[in-house]
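U., I forgot to send this yesterday:
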Amino acid sequence: MQKLPNGAKAPSNNKHLVASVFTYMRVIFLFLLMDIFFAGNAQNLTEKSIEVGQFLYINPCNKNQKEFVSMDVYARTKPYNKKLIDTTTGDGLLDEFFKDKSIDAKRLPCSMGGHKYRIAALHQFNEGGQNKRVILLYTAYPLTLIWVELDKALELGEIKID
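Result:
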């Protein structure tokens, strides 16, 4: 048990719950503050929020394009433990899905464009001193996820958030 400033003791079994709630709140807060789209030009800004459970629309590819630039599709060859994933926040999905090397990956083919996909998880990484925002999407296939580099996808017009 931890001692609180007033001398009371806090139960230690709530650490995981508090950490999970804090992570969820932090992700929502970051995405609420940072999700700004360019709609036509820099003077016409629209703010959008993104949450787990929402749908994200992947636009059709441009002509003469075979695959998307900002998105990959990951397919597992073995099942993963879905019981360890909080489906309301997406917590645990990244760790469980990418836990071992039973994964095939490739750029998302254009055949998967023109459809809506449910947001499974939101993540932010620091890569090379820059923040990288990623959205994981469920597909119709239970062992497959789409990895979207959010800022790159927005810049290229590959996605639309409803």
